[in-house]
Amino acid sequence: MRKIALLSLALLFCLAAPSAWSSEAVEPPQKDWSFDGPTGTFDRAALQRGYKVYREVCSACHAMKHLAFRNLADIGYDEGQIKAIAAEYTFVDGPNDEGDMYERPGLPSDHFKSPFANDNAAKAANGGALPPDLSLIIKARHDGPNYVYGILTGYEEPPADKALQPGQNWNKYMPGHVIAMAPPLSDDGIVYEDGSPQRIEQYAADVVEFLTWASEPSLESRKRTGVKVLIFLMVMAGVMYAIKRKIWAGAH
Amino acid sequence: MGSSERANFKNPVVSWVDERLPIFTLMQKEYGVFPTPKNFNYFWNFGAIAMFMLVAMIVSGIVLAMHYTANTHLAFDSVERIMRDVNGGWLIRYIHMNGASFFFVAVYIHIFRGMYYGSYKRPRELLWILGVVIFLLMMATAFIGYVLPWGQMSLWGATVITNLFSAIPLVGQSIVTLLWGGFSIDNPTLTRFFALHYLLPFVIFAVVFLHVWALHVTGSNNPLGIDTKGPQDTLPFHPYYTMKDTFGLAVFLIIYAVFIFYMPNALGHPDNYIPANPLVTPAHIVPEWYFLPFYAMLRAITFDIGIPFTDVVIIDAKLLGVLTMFGSIALLFVLPWLDSHPIRSARFRPLFKLFLLALVVDFVFLGYVGSQPADATFLGLSLSYFGLAGTVYYYGFFLVALPWLSKNEKGRELPASIHESVLNQSKDAH
Ligand code: HEM
């Protein structure tokens, strides 16, 4: 009997274990993230720095259409700041009572403004390659945080026997190694007001923190709720076990 | 149902209703005093757990459907809106997404229990067949549900699986066109899939009702696989098994909750967070984990069957693969007749037990093979050979081992009664 129980447990584990992916890409380095683990949370300062990196660099090519300016309240901006950030962008709205479209400054309820009008415009501006929307990029890649960090820090000279076309770059962690995105980050490229090191690794780590939050804004409340649910279920299981024992005591 | 004797209820309202519609008598009879073998082990919890999961899927699904939009341009974004803007939306979606997996975990263990203890044998054949019908309907529901979020794996999984039907001679292509609602997977496909995804769980519910009805006609099997012989062998369902089932359910929910709250996407595929794009094929198209063993059988068949030394092909590889995959489930339907051994429980059939546990290992191994890219190799051999070996064992178990064992396995001596066996056991324990 015990053997069968063990076997079925082992079976459950095999099924639950993520399948081993054989892929051409190199495994990215495994970093410690503040949001890892059952109690991990986001680092608000890193999130705000990461948003700065996105805004000043990545947003030139990558949209994040699932995010609205109002969501920035989550990462520590107050209402006034959010209004000011949104107002920096111009949006087309309408039609008004005369039937005309008009331009207006952004509002907190607007979604992040996409850099290109459509995918074709994005491709035309990027030598035929489409910069993907980054709202979900962390969840859309295996081992997302480490992978994106790897991409941002993994640019190298191509091996001597590999010739790159113009517009192609060599990246250690990209599947197939050839990537159309030029290295987006460089040391001292973005000014940090809080004195954090202005280095590629720091920029990359911060933007990954920000993108992880963007992929899963509910991460913190999910883990917090999880603790409560698990405590409740464990107490319930314990009580039910005691009741069951008591009831069954006289059964045999 | 109407003619049988009614129970007495103290509460006048209950009594009044029961005189006119004996629903309380029914509940009392089927779930209150229902005589249940007293020697169940924890494998008997999984029926109740599966029932709970079905209800959880229907409830969470209906809430999702209130916010979901079945349109190829809007579906992906509407799911993201559920995740971000709907109050508690992320929780509902993760309950539903992981719920499908845990429903399958429960049902796979439930099916294994049935096979190990011979619950499919006379007089429970129809009960078993209804169970296999539920399993098939679940697979259809889960496959269709996975298409709804309209990510890359939704689209391409649907492409691979619906294309299978084109292998059917003569009518195949028409069936595919009917499934698609056109000549490619597009908006009509998504809308009909949503309609069916809403419908099928209620069909499942109806079949579950029949399944439980059939169970209450024959009564439950038990780990010894011998019939109950009287009141000394049984206990009333309530409170003995209601309490034990609730305890088991709580433990199951703990594991389920760990997935929902701490690794909600571990069982999914990252590609499904990329919006569906008919112009970009993902590098590896893989179905959800619960389909992987069957997917491996499908892909294991890479050869045609024809008349030797001629070019005449009778069944081409594609059709043969499809037949092999569906056949593996068809075998479950006829299992009660493939295994005609008089002893039910594997406890008293050491050989059967060995072959069955090997089948479990084989099934998990097939799942692994199914998860690998089609061109993968192992020890220098193409993985499809391993898939083929696993498939041969699967079929061999049902078509060769079971009939052979039915005739030739002697089996151990059965205990005289459940009561006696339970007494001996507690004597040993003290
Ligand atoms: C037998 C029970 C059921 C099973 C096995 C099942 C399975 C699934 C699966 C695997 C998905 C894809 C999850 C994802 O990746 O997002 C899904 C999505 C969905 N299901 Fe179900 N489902 C069931 C019942 C229902 C019911 C009863 C409804 C509604 C009436 C429903 C509504 C939905 C909706 C709206 C979606 C799309 C939203 C989403 O993807 O999160 N489901 N289902």
Give the SSE map.
The complex is a heterodimer of chains A (252) and B (430).
Chain A: H1 2-16, H2 44-56, H3 79-87, E1 90-93, E2 102-105, H4 119-125, H5 144-153, E3 169-170, E4 178-179, H6 200-215, H7 219-249
Antiparallel strand pairs in A: 1-2, 3-4
Helix pairs in contact in A: 2-6, 5-6
Chain B: H1 12-20, H2 23-32, E1 35-37, H3 46-67, H4 75-84, H5 89-116, H6 125-147, H7 152-164, H8 172-180, H9 187-218, E2 234-236, H10 237-262, H11 292-300, E3 305-306, E4 313-315, H12 317-338, H13 350-371, E5 377-378, E6 381-382, H14 383-408, H15 418-429
Helix pairs in contact in B: 3-5, 3-9, 3-10, 4-5, 5-6, 5-10, 6-7, 6-9, 6-12, 11-12, 11-13, 11-14, 12-14, 13-14
Largest interface: A-B, 49 and 60 residues
The number of E-state strands of chain B comes to: 6
Question: Mean of residue pLDDT of chain B?
Answer: 95
SSE order of chain A in H/E notation?
A: HHHEEHHEEHH
Spell out the helices and strands of chain B N to C. HHEHHHHHHHEHHEEHHEEHH
Percent strand of chain B: under 5%
- Helical proportion of chain B? 55-70%
Distance between the termini of chain A: 19 Å
Rounded to an integer in angstroms, the radius of gyration calculated over CA atoms of chain A is 24 Å
Tally of helical runs of chain A: 7
Uncertain residue ranges of chain B: none
Radius of gyration of chain B: 24 Å
Which fold name corresponds to the CATH topology of the largest domain in chain A?
Answer: Cytochrome Bc1 Complex, Chain D, domain 2
Q: What top-tier CATH class of the largest domain in chain A fits best?
A: Mainly Alpha
Oligomerization state of this entry? heterodimer
CATH architecture of the largest domain in chain A: Orthogonal Bundle
Helix-strand makeup class of chain B: mainly alpha
Percent helix among the residues of chain A? Answer: 40-55%
**Shape label of chain B:** globular
